[in-house]
Amino acid sequence: MADKLLYEKKDNIVTLTLNDPDVRNAISDEAMISAIVDALQRIKADYDVRCVILTGAGTAFSSGGNVKNMQRHEGMFAGGVYNVRVGYQRGIQRIPLAMYDLELPIIAAVNGHAIGAGCDLACMCDIRIAARSARFAESFVKLGIIPGDGGAWFLPRAVGMSNAMLMAFTGEQFTGEQAFEMGLASKVVDDDKLMDEAMALARRIAVNPAYGLRMAKRLLREGARTELATLLDMSASMQAIAHQSEDHKEAVDAFVEKRKPVFKNR
After folding, report:
1. Sign of the four-CA dihedral 150, 156, 162, 163
2. For 208-258, what is each residue's pLDDT tens digit?
3. CATH superfamily for domain 5-206
């Protein structure tokens, strides 16, 4: 059986490819959930990584939940009310927790349909680049359900509350251009340019020191939920650590000497 998730590391950049095109890269099956969570934990532990790209194999980014499994009440959709609740908690909800816990920047290269939980998966990433063929839909209401994977938390932070409600209440699909207009996508590019654009952005990020990137992302995450005084105290502590790093010294020396820095993640 083919790997559900392809893991490729080149230099300081990891590319993750959802690899179940027969079900349009659905992410509700246990094998796919575990593959995603394990890959994110592997990346977090690798201090040589500075940026991550997430995309999908075939014509879809991700179709979200496996609707046929919903119909058959299989997998995480099996059983009564209690069973389904636990199925979500022990199943797909592991993905948003692992994504939120990832300290490194992650770019979603949305190569096609990002539907339901697939749309939410894109929202869990820090930056989204959309192919012209991309389609986004917070489509749960069309199936008589709600975003059970954390979309109600991630989507408003990506597009604002009004646009989030527009997407959630209609369940309709939005094009890459529409996603760009509402801030869901940072850029829309031709399909054959998508991975080149995502890699070019990843390289622009990856030239910077890994520890600085990790701490900057942590501060941005904390800034969305904590008071200013608390964030300032955390910033001061992290800044003190950063000032003592070898990479900071190298960055300052390179700036003064007008050369490119060589970072060693120390």
Report:
1. negative
2. 999 899 999 999 999 988 999 999 999 999 999 999 999 999 899 989 999
3. 2-enoyl-CoA Hydratase; Chain A, domain 1 (3.90.226.10)
